[in-house]
Write a structure and sequence with these properties.
mainly alpha, about 75% helix, elongated
Length: about 375
């Protein structure tokens, strides 16, 4: 009995000594790695890896994976990641999954990638959680499931992951994988909006504006619309203009409305181009300018909007540009299919020679065909 106790004590002492030695060696390897002395790190890690140390096996895999002062080898990286992963080392499980997913160092297998991402994610590795969520979302390596995707995206969202917050919000908004909840969608959109994400700011604004998932509030809606608009979000700029012109949650201001409509118009927003044209045409929020009105109406016409054509023609007419007025009155007449005597004909009779009329009719026909193409595309 005494001898047996001595043997057990000796064994435990040797194990403790080995563990202490291994810890010291790994600490030395870690310092060498951080100092970019990869050769020293590799020698120590590989020695410990061959003795079965899971952490050393992982780092040996890393050095092979990225070819740090040794020849890059996905095959050797796979070998060591697998050994470490099977011992439950979470980061190794994630890297092993990556190799399976991309087919590096082994035959591509989404099923095996899913298996190891899940193992790693269950231990809280953020990058593995992100990959696992995407696999569930897209049905890669596993049956597609918005419910399970949402589970993992919300775990990430709670950690502050911006992409996950956006996806979680969208899934709640659309009711995919869960009961539709505008309240939860707003929760995640606002989390992301607070970080300065313009799309999330716009989405949060829409929910406040419509009173979806929260009490309707023009004031809160405008707060987020303005934040997004200031970052160049074109739809938010258009909405900021609309809120100012109606005085919803803010003091009514035609000047500020025009400012935001014009910002959106400059980015090609069709409705904003029409609103901006109308405001300049009527002298609303700025000094009346038929020149600027024509500019924005023509931009809208170039996108295939036929409602602005008559105002465009009148804008040119009122600024005294009879050539452009004739062309756009002709286009308007062709679009409407009117058979009555048109303003274009009156202008032609009073202002132009027959030769000029012929040339301008060709220009009008070209404009007409361009607009028709745009209308067909829409």
């Amino acid at each position: 009995m005494y001898i047996r106790s001595i043997l057990i004590f000796s064994f435990l002492l040797s194990v403790t000594s080995f563990m202490s030695f291994a810890s010291e060696e790994l600490d030395t390897a870690s310092k060498a790695y951080k100092a970019k002395d990869y050769a020293t790190a590799f020698n120590i890690y590989q020695k410990a890896a061959k003795q079965g140390n899971a952490e050393a096996q992982y780092w040996t895999g890393i050095l092979y994976r990225f070819g740090l002062e040794i020849e890059q080898s996905h095959e050797n990286a796979f070998l060591w990641f697998e050994k470490s992963a099977k011992q439950g080392f979470a980061d190794a499980q994630h890297y092993l999954a990556d190799l399976y997913y991309f087919g590096k160092g082994t035959e591509q297998s989404y099923t095996n990638a899913f298996h190891w991402y899940k193992k790693s994610a269950e231990q809280g590795v953020t990058s593995a959680e992100r990959s696992l969520a995407a696999l569930y979302y897209n049905g890669i390596g596993i049956k597609q499931s918005y419910t399970k995707a949402l589970h993992w995206y919300e775990k990430l969202a709670e950690k502050g992951d911006s992409k996950a917050q956006n996806v979680a919000a969208a899934l709640h908004y659309k009711g995919l994988g869960t009961e539709q909840s505008y309240t939860k969608a707003l929760h995640w959109y606002e989390k992301l909006a607070e970080k300065g994400d313009s799309k999330a700011q716009y989405n949060a604004a829409i929910l406040h504006y419509k009173g979806l998932g929260t009490e309707q509030s023009y004031k809160k809606a405008f707060y987020w619309f303005k934040k997004a608009a200031e970052q160049g979000h074109v739809d938010a700029q258009r909405m900021a203009g609309s809120i100012y012109i109606r005085g919803e949650g803010v003091e009514q201001s035609d000047i500020k409305a025009l400012h935001w409509f014009e910002k959106a118009a400059e980015q090609g927003h069709l409705d904003a181009q029409k609103f901006t044209g109308n405001m300049y045409y009527n002298g609303q929020g700025a000094e009346q300018s038929y020149f600027k009105a024509a500019h924005w109406f023509e931009k809208a016409a170039e996108q295939g909007d036929v409602d602005v054509l008559i105002l465009l023609a009148h804008s040119y007419y009122k600024q005294g540009n009879m050539k452009s007025a004739y062309i756009w009155f002709s286009v308007t007449n062709s679009i409407s299919g009117s058979t009555t005597r048109s303003t274009a004909e009156n202008i032609a009779e009073l202002k132009f020679s027959p030769e000029q009329v012929l040339l301008y009719q060709i220009d009008a026909q070209i404009k007409l065909e361009e607009i028709k193409k745009k209308i067909q595309l829409k």
